[in-house]
Predict the 3D structure of the following.
Amino acid sequence: MLYGYHVRNILKPDPKEVEKRYRVAVKEVKVASVLFDKEEDAKRLEVEIKAGGKFELLAKKRIDAGEAKGSVEGQYVKFGTLSPEAAKAVSNMKKGEVSPLIRIGKQFSLVKLAAIRYPKEKTARAQAEKEALQAKRVAALKAYSDGLRKKYVKIDRKLFDTIDYEAAEPGFEKLRADRRVLAAVKGEKPVTVGDLTSALEKKFFHGAEQAAGGKKLNRRKDQVLEEILNRRVTIKEAKLQKLDRTKYFKGKTAENSNGILFGAFVKKVIVPDVKVGEEELKSYYQAHIGDYTFPEMVRIDSLAFSDRKNAEDAIVKLRTGADFQWLRENADGQADPARGKNLLEFRGQLLDTTTLPDGVTKAVSGTEAGGYSLHADPGNAYYVLALRERIPSRPIPLESVKGEMEKKVFAEKLQRVLRDWEEKLRKASDVKIYATGKKLDRIVTPLAK
């Protein structure tokens, strides 16, 4: 409680730390990659690229020849979803660079970094703020704890380093009875070798001797000594600061007591009567089927044009048999990616329709697989959308989500039962209401000010 009291006024995180954590969380990289089974094939490509060859052309040649798998059409992925090996390589790259050969398990990869972006995500920012505030408090507590240790404690490090719980001699029994002072605590009883030994013994359910045989005791002695000393110095400091007389202490004590009593009441009296039946689960499943449904997925290719006429002409040509790839390479009026940083690009990826821009979802909503549609974004571009595949939304099988649903249904029933108990207790108690509505507002508002 002393530590909580110390950081009670740290309420805002460091903005720089928030931004740092946020950017790590939302970072997306646009990468093109190829994966080889044979190291020699990958090395040949690496040599050709270092000699000045173009990654896209050389990699596509290997993919077409069946030597490699992958795609030269870059797509954005969350940086955090990359394999550790790829992430390490990409983190040191600049836009446009190709990685050195990356070993991933038994395979070998080369990656080109096309772009980096940091999308806006409210949830990620809120989490970054929460983590940054926690980190700020932890740092303050560490500094405070170190200060207390420096103020009150002196450890005999030479003695500490000689204690070997895994050696045959002097043995655990003798160390448990050892009264040599391991750490002096100013104004308090010292910590002895025996104190450390007894505390360490309590950490192992199957006994210290078995832990010694497993070479676990010496690894834990530092941690256990820290726990003993932290407990001693916090209690001493709390007494000196008269923490027990503060509003903070009294409020926390009452809060903890009430929480323990209420938790015990709920566990013993209410929870045993809350049951979830099979029919209830089925009813909940049907009522919330939208929450337990795989989203509709679509596979789209796109062309971006600077004006509507060229886009509409392209659709006419496609519907009369023109080859999509040929149009990508030859059609006039296509938007220049270098001039429109917000251009959309779809290269045959399978996409969740709920994540697509509204205009794209609307444009393909009435299109059958193999069809073409127009998505207009005036001032930016006009898109020809080729719908390659549509996978309809479908319910997730009940059995797959049964465990998750049971927890939700139980929680909801428990809340209803608690509300019923609340109403019963109100009726059984002498509750007087002195003010409601506007009268209550007139009383509370001046106090709030």
User: Anything to note?
Assistant: The radius of gyration is 33 Å. The first strand starts at residue 28 and ends at 36. The first helix runs from residue 2 to 6.
